[in-house]
Write a structure and sequence with these properties.
Elements: H1 11-21, E1 29-32, H2 39-47, E2 52-55, H3 57-68, H4 75-88, E3 93-94, H5 99-132, H6 143-151, H7 158-194, H8 207-217, H9 226-233, E4 237-242, E5 245-250
Parallel strand pairs: 1-2
Antiparallel strand pairs: 2-3, 4-5
Helix pairs in contact: 3-4, 5-7, 5-8, 6-7, 7-8
Length: 257
């Protein structure tokens, strides 16, 4: 070991770590789980022009067990085991900057946040309309229905006027959120098509699901074969037995959005 040190996860700690590592000009950064928990650090290093490799968590855990005789995790042991894997393994995936995939990830996260915001807005609007128009609540409320319902209400008391004004504000927010969702969906579709992906050719897979898959998978070459990919997605067949009968099943892969 040539050196080590603890660094905080804030901007100051990141700068201190980069400055410390400059002692070794011919360097490679090894990040555990560079497509998961380690993604933020890996992306920052890549954008700074550093060479970064992805260390699978299983390899790091195996080295940690052999090195210490136990598998208890500490920051120092983790760093040491990850570095050993990077030094001794020549087949680790070298990360590359992929602006389109990063854009997909940001847009899919943004759209999911907007979808949650839309649901919350609809819930608030429905509650207000139920008070303004008892017995006329809509289960699947649309902006057009909400506009028509509000147009029929002209309360005269201060509480009713306030309730209607807040409902109008919620409706305006709902319209704005739905506009943003449509725009994000169009952007996602354009990027998915630009990458030449055929995911949307599959029945039931639209631009949102296709973008989520591409963003989460990242560089598909990080999987040695289709079996490893199926294991990662949770769709690998499992042997299941009941009495004297054996059958094949699979874990479920859920998508939303």
């Amino acid at each position: 070991m040539l050196g080590s040190g603890p660094f905080t996860t804030d901007q100051a700690g990141y700068k201190a770590m980069r400055a410390y590592a400059k002692t070794w000009p011919d360097r490679v950064w090894a990040v555990e789980g560079a497509n998961g928990v380690g993604r933020p650090l890996a992306q920052r290093l890549l954008e700074a022009g550093e060479r970064v490799v992805d260390v699978p968590a299983k390899l790091a855990a195996r080295i940690r067990l052999f090195d210490t005789g136990h598998n208890r995790k500490t920051d120092a042991l983790d760093a040491h085991s990850i570095a050993i894997v990077a030094v001794r393994t020549q087949t680790l995936r070298v990360l590359q900057v992929d602006g389109e995939l990063e854009a997909l990830r940001m847009l899919t996260d943004r759209r999911e946040a907007l979808t949650r915001r839309r649901v919350q807005t609809v819930d608030r609007l429905q509650a207000l309309l139920a008070e303004l128009l008892p017995g006329q609540a809509k289960r699947d409320l649309t902006t057009g229905q909400a506009k028509a319902m509000l147009a029929t209400v002209r309360p005269r008391d201060i509480a009713g006027k306030t309730r209607r004004r807040i409902a109008a504000d919620e409706l305006a927010e709902l319209i704005a959120v739905e506009t943003k969702i449509k725009k994000a969906t169009a952007e996602l579709k354009a990027i998915v098509l630009a990458r030449g992906s055929t995911l949307m050719d599959l029945h039931g897979v639209g631009p949102v699901v296709a973008a989520r898959i591409l963003a989460d998978v990242g560089d598909v070459t990080r999987f040695a074969d289709r079996n490893r990919f199926a294991s990662w997605t949770g769709t690998a067949p499992l042997d299941a037995s009941s009495g004297e009968q054996n059958r094949h099943g699979s874990q479920g892969l859920g998508t939303g959005g």
